[in-house]
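Handout for the seminar on molecular recognition.
Each group receives one record of this type.
Step one: identify the two inputs.
Step two: read the structure output and locate the region that could contact fe (ii) ion.
Step three: write two sentences on what you found, then compare them with the reference statements printed after the record.
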Amino acid sequence: MTTQALKYQSQSVAKLYFIAAMVLFAGQILFGVTLGLQYLIGDLFFPYIPFNIARMVHTNLLIVWLLFGFMGAAYYMIPEEAETELHSPALAIALFWIFLIAGAATILGYLLVPYAKLAELTGNDLLQTMGREFLEQPLPTKVGIVVVALGFLFNISMTVLKGRKTAITLVLLMGLWGLALMFLFSFVNPHNLVRDKMYWWFVVHLWVEGVWELILASLLAYVLVKTTGVDREVIDKWMYIIIAFALMSGLLGTGHHFFFIGMPGYWLWIGSIFSALEPLPFFLMAVFAFNMVQQRRRNHPNQAAVLWAVGTSVMGFLGAGLWGFIHTLAPVNYYTHGSQITAAHGHLAFFGAYVMVVIAIISYAMPTLRGRLANSQKSQALEMWSFWVMCIGMGIMVLALTAAGTVQVWLQRLPETNALGFMATQDELRIFYWVRIGGGITFLIGQFMYFASFFVGGQHVLPGDKHHKHGHDSHGGAGSNPLHAQPAQRLNGRI
Ligand code: HEM
Ligand code: HEM
Ligand SMILES: [Fe+2]
């Protein structure tokens, strides 16, 4: 059965990666809710899980599960795109376990050993790399990440080299190689605080507003090619335009983090101007997704995947484009820097652009990894509900944080005299933090519904079902399948 829904047997290694990603995603959200509660009940779980540790676990789990998702996506997409089996499925499986064990050990280390002790135990004195947000991993973990990344890149690059080269794989490879390359700056941690911060942003900014955007564009294009059947030439053109805009704006856009860290003053201009252009590629992605769905040449039975693909383009634009823009100009950032506005943006951008695109590819791929073309209508209906509940939960969180941030700036940053202190301001913001917890719990419920949709039965769409030409890019016009066109149409209406 499995072999029928999959064009290449070795694509099946992706399943492990996707399952691990989902388990770690669950952990990330549990720690997120813990953090949200600790904002209101300061000593919750103290001294066992202090806020700083929970925060580190929350953000590190996010990054790690997104990396699992990207790798799974690559292992799934590349054999099919390259029209050849993966260079080494065994290597992919070995690296999976290495990454999972190293990741789990690191998280346990965070939770069980005081951070300073962990640094001492893991050789931080040899090369000091610890202590920077998102890059808190001990040295052996960082080295492990590099080893896994190199093995992974070797594996997928060899596959592409021996097979068909498509624009989608080319952009994906560029993004993934860039991701690994930029991570090397996590080993550069000079004592000079200005240079320390600068290299830190070389990883964090050039990831999310640089090379990861290539990965995003490639995953999105892939899901759209598969589900809409629109010609590749059209989709490739869009993708190239999007990544050109992403790189043109995003690279020098790094300057929006150099405003107040001690870098030369010209960065106020460079950072403001280039980062103001950064919403463009995200906007184009949204136009792209809607266009492709409008021009679709068939109604793929997996409409849940289409919903996630369109959703990621919209939410990514809102989170990165709109919420990024509101605080990116230097005169604005002067007031908002490091406030709750930043947290609002960080959440919506990460969720909209990267969490949702990984779910989109999982939503498309997972049924095929389980021998189906698409899940049953019942399962897809629940999945689509989970989409809305998660998006609404995130929306509530982000609006609450945006309001909190605005009041924070108003009380603490704007007044020339008699500005409220940091903690006194926080006391005024509690109502917003309660709303944020409401949004967080809504999100948690949506996530639970999403996981539950994997276990909902009903009549799944199987490869044997007539008229489904799986794997071909441009087969079957809209409505060519009397059996499924109608339900698909009906689900379409929910986008
Ligand atoms: C999907 C893409 C993006 C993601 C995942 C993302 C994520 C984040 C995160 C997590 C932070 C907080 C970093 C920290 O200080 O700990 C941040 C900061 C920031 N982001 Fe983004 N971002 C994205 C795109 C953008 C875009 C397109 C813009 C501009 C239009 C932007 C503007 C900013 C600015 C100005 C800051 C600094 C905020 C401050 O000074 O406190 N971001 N971003
Ligand atoms: C997929 C969903 C989520 C994503 C992508 C996400 C992402 C992030 C990121 C990137 C940060 C660092 C922010 C920054 O530096 O500005 C963060 C911190 C945080 N997150 Fe989440 N998060 C998610 C869900 C949640 C949930 C459900 C809650 C629960 C209420 C939550 C609560 C928090 C809190 C309280 C912090 C610490 C903020 C601070 O230091 O003031 N997150 N999250
Ligand atoms: Fe940035």
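Reference statements: The radius of gyration is 23 Å. The chain has one domain: 2-492.
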